[in-house]
Design a protein that fits this description.
Blueprint (H helix, E strand, L loop, with lengths): L7 H6 L14 E7 L2 H9 L1 H7 L2 E7 L1 H13 L7 E4 L4 H7 L18 H6 L1 E2 L2 E2 L2 E6 L1 E6 H7 L9 H11 L7 E4 L9 H11 L16 H17 L9 H9 L3 E7 L11 E5 L13 E6 L7 H11 L2 H8 L21 H6 L3 H10 L21 H17 L4 H18 L5
Parallel strand pairs: 1-2, 1-3, 8-9
Antiparallel strand pairs: 3-11, 4-5, 6-11, 7-9, 7-10
Amino acid sequence: MKSLRNTALGLAMGITGATGAFADGHTELTIAIVNNGHMINMQTVAQAYTQETGVTLNWVSLEEGVLREQVTSDTATGGGQYDVINIGMQEAPIWGAAGWIEPMDFDADYDVDDILPAMRAGLSHEGTLYAAPFYGESSMVMYRKDLTDAAGVTINDNDSWARVMQAAAAMHDPDNGVYGACLRGKPGWGDNMAFITTVVNSFGGAWFDADGRPQLDSAMWNQAVNFYVDLLGNYGPPGSEGNSFNEILALYNEDKCGLWIDATIAASFLENDNVAYAQSPNAGVAAGANWLWAWAMAVPTGSPNSEAAHDFIEWATSKAYVQAVGNHAEFGWGSVPTGQRASTYAIPEFQAAAGFAAAEMAAIDSAAPAASDIKPYVGVQFAAIPEFPEVGSAVAQEMAAALSGAKSVEDALAAAQEAADAIMREAGYYE
């Protein structure tokens, strides 16, 4: 693959310059992205990429759950709708092994060793990188320190869930539009189940046993989900079963949330000056209490614009892109994508702008995706098996029903266990 870093504009702006077929303006790339802030920002920053290279970028920005459905369907069937796709750690190794996406092969100046080891490992299969991280994340507590101080409560690193409940109750003031805890409730394996799974992990539970049999009828799942429903039902905003990342971000920036436990990347977009951070709580089991994820870019196998797609990814996930965002008049150093490159955390301007950086790195470093005696599969908030998205989506609907009050927790878990068992049995894990 050619190097695209030698033009004067590229050196000045962190934009890679194309030659040959890319310079004539006829190459177009269709890029499917999740509608999160850093991805939206990229559309603005990438205008300079088009000006320099002549490559037209057609953006398809989708809500997280819709993106997963459309990208999975198109990639699995070889539909060819997209040249570049947003995927994550659940999909990349599996799709790479299946031949659905192309291996990543970058020039030496890209410095693949600068990518954080946890992100590189999670996006690889048998040592081959199949997707490049645009940003990476764990999860942590973000809370209004002015409200905790006023209420006389504290939130500590790796606190107990009981103390988190106490803090949420103390801050909860719905008459004045403040809700003690804002948490994901929208159904989806990467939405409500991302958070719920970390709670289950912290209670010592797991999705499956070593034979692939679902464990949703365990005491740990019952305890964890009852806690989740009680916390959000008593101290969360109305309609929480419809809230995902973007909805809660909006609530937090409207000063309506006391605490929020979610992706570390959210800290880039918080506007309240009183925000403080803590490592994720647990119920006695710390491993798995905070998730690990990367929104990454991959090229579907057989894309007619494969070379141009790889070149775009090389630019969009490079050190130069971080510099381009940091030096951009509209964004700046507090808005650069994080959690993907070690070098970002050594940039003085970033250190000055990002008060969350230390907490974010601590969360990423402590995430535990490896299989263990408790959790006999790879993945923190997901299981790295092909069937998980189907299982997770089915269970997510039941958990949303429990949160809304449409079902009891016990009935929802029983239905979830039945659905998961049918999927895993049909997949041949057991008879």
